[in-house]
Amino acid sequence: MDLLKLxxxxxxxxxxxxxxxxxKRQTPFYLYSLNQIRQNVKYINSxxxxxxxxxxxxxxxxxxxxxxxxxxxxNLGADVVSVGELKLALKAGIKPNKIVFSGVGKTDEExxxxxxxxxxxxxxxxxxxxxxxxxxxxxxKKITNIGVRINPDIKAKTNRKIATGxxxxxFGISISEFLNVIKNKNKFQNIKISLLSVHIxxxxxxxxxxxKVLSLISKILIKLKNLKHIINCIDLGGGMGIPYFKxxxxxDFKKFGLEISxxxxxxxxxxxxxxxxxxxxxSGHIISKVIYVKKIKDRIFIIIDTGMNDxxxxxxYDAFHEIIPLHKSTKKFSKKVEFVGPICExxxxxxxxxxxxxxxxxxxxxxxxxxxxxRTLSSNYNMRPLIEEVILNNKxxxxxxxxxxxxxxx
Length: 410
Ligand code: LLP
What we know:
The chain is α/β, with parallel strands linked by helices.
């Protein structure tokens, strides 16, 4: 259930009027509800009752330290894709044996650091990387546990830019290449291939595609058995989609849980997930101010103080993030309105609406569902400072990251 709610035309989160949180704060700012995150984690866990997967939170979705600490308290591990994310996860107190490291371009330094920290698994994405991990481990006189990410050549129904499981995508290695590595594993004396990983993309709603992945993995496990190679863990990645539109369907975790449970009963192998968006997506929003209401012949531009540098998803993926006024007027604009930011690009737009409630300059709006891939994709484009981040824990309001100062950017 979403904790962001309109009550008597005023927007609330955690049952607090958003206007109250505004006080003295410079807009725009990110606002996260820890309660929403806890609720999401609880929902996911309740769908996985028949087995106990390790849920590694995909740090790239939202790398706010306070959020990571909260997730750690909820027993989550971390999925990281750079040494920066790895250091952050460790700083949040997440134990190395709950951290997996993904990514197609890990450097020597990153691999060395991960090996020294004894993380749960470095998930390699090419034979070149497997060789490099082996060589570095040898120099460090270590045997390193690694995973191999396979590219299943399965197309997920999602935005082309966030699909990863097709053979033309740069991620993972083909199944035949993987089996070749296993056949030649004697060449790699300083690694132990103990995990198989797969991640087919993000914002996926359809469970069928995961079923395909599971049946493919079962086939691979038979082949591995024939090669007398035992792995002890399957990492199924993330990708579970969330609703961005009002009547969008939600990813059915209960059904998904049943499918995974069937797989688990059959294979009896430890399961890992790398979930990002579903954990933090609906927990975060941007509070923004209307700077100008600019009228042209066929529409009204509502120019807000949030730009594509603060929230890039609409510009990059044409993603829709519903914008709701903090105080909704009962009167409506007669023309279409388009919400746009101040950045000098036509892609700096947040969507077109019909019959939108009247807004005036100085009013406030909320850009919803920005808790995943919001702040982490933001930039200093147009010399704009990264904005403040505020956390709501029950009724407690706390700034957890200050707005950058322009002077610091110069
Ligand atoms: N594991 C791996 C290896 C990944 O590459 C990703 C996301 C995840 C897990 C987490 O996926 P999630 O559960 O969050 O869907 N910037 C895009 C999304 C890019 C996703 C990148 N990889 C967006 O804003 O939609």
